[in-house]
UniProtKB/TrEMBL annotation:
Organism: Egicoccus halophilus
Lineage of origin: Bacteria, Bacillati, Actinomycetota, Nitriliruptoria, Egicoccales
Function according to Swiss-Prot or TrEMBL: Nucleoside triphosphate pyrophosphatase that hydrolyzes dTTP and UTP. May have a dual role in cell division arrest and in preventing the incorporation of modified nucleotides into cellular nucleic acids.
Site (Important for substrate specificity): 14, 71, 153
The family this protein is said to belong to: Belongs to the Maf family. YhdE subfamily.
A biological process from GO: nucleotide metabolic process
Protein name as annotated: dTTP/UTP pyrophosphatase
Length: 192
C-alpha cells in the first residue's frame, strides 16, 4: 500500500529542507491564519494552538497528511517575534547575548479530521556577543526573517554556545517528534 501524500502547511524553506533529510518532499500549501496571541495565552499554548490551526486551515483531501508547525523564541517568558527592522534585531540579539532562552515549536499532523499536536522545547545558550560580532551578524541580513532575530541553520550558529534539546526544533521543525506524530496517522517514514 502506498503512503498517503504529504502536505507541508508552511512556506518556510527551512521546514521543507528538514523534511527532505528524511527523503520527504511534500507539496507546500501555506494557510492564511491569524497568528495574534490570545490575551492570556502563554508561549506553549500559543505554538500548540497555531500549529493545530494551521493544520486544520490547510486544504487537503482525506487521503493527504498535513504537517504544520509554529516556532517561537521565548526570553524571560516573552515571545520574541521576527524583528521589525535592524534596530529591533540588534535589540533582540543584545537581549539574548550571554544568556539562555527557549525555542518552542508546536508541530501538528493531520489526517482527515484527526489532528495530533506536540510542543517541543529547546534551551539555547548564546555566547556573549561583542559589538563587532553583532554588527557582522546584522550585516549578513540573516536576522530579519527569523523569530528572535537569528537562524541556527546559517551564520547564526556562531552566536550559540550550546543547545539543550533538539537542534531541528530551533530550525523550525523537530524531526524526531514529527516522525512520532506521523506514525500516529499511519505514516512510518523510517521503515526500510
Amino acid at each position: 500500500m502506498a503512503d498517503p501524500p504529504l502536505v507541508l502547511a508552511s512556506a518556510s524553506p527551512r521546514r521543507a529542507q528538514l523534511l527532505a533529510r528524511l527523503d520527504l518532499h511534500p507539496e507546500v500549501r501555506p494557510p492564511s491564519v491569524d497568528e495574534t496571541p490570545g490575551a492570556a495565552e502563554g508561549p506553549a499554548d500559543l505554538v500548540r494552538r497555531l500549529a493545530a490551526l494551521k493544520a486544520m486551515a490547510t486544504e487537503a483531501t482525506d487521503d493527504e497528511v498535513v504537517v504544520a508547525a509554529d516556532t517561537e523564541v521565548v526570553l524571560d517568558g516573552r515571545v520574541l517575534g521576527k524583528p521589525a527592522d535592524r534596530d529591533d534585531a540588534a535589540a533582540m540579539l543584545r537581549a539574548l547575548s550571554g544568556r539562555g532562552h527557549e525555542v518552542l515549536t508546536g508541530v501538528a499532523v493531520r489526517h482527515g479530521p484527526i489532528v495530533h499536536v506536540d510542543v517541543v522545547r529547546t534551551t539555547v545558550i548564546f555566547r556573549t556577543l561583542t559589538d563587532d560580532e553583532l554588527t557582522w551578524y546584522l550585516d549578513t541580513g540573516e536576522p530579519f526573517d527569523k523569530a528572535g532575530g537569528y537562524g541556527l541553520q546559517g551564520a547564526g550558529a556562531v552566536l550559540v554556545e550550546r543547545l539543550e534539546g533538539s537542534d531541528t526544533n530551533v530550525i523550525g521543525l523537530p524531526l524526531a517528534e514529527t516522525v512520532v506524530l506521523l506514525r500516529h496517522v499511519g505514516l512510518d517514514v523510517l521503515r526500510p
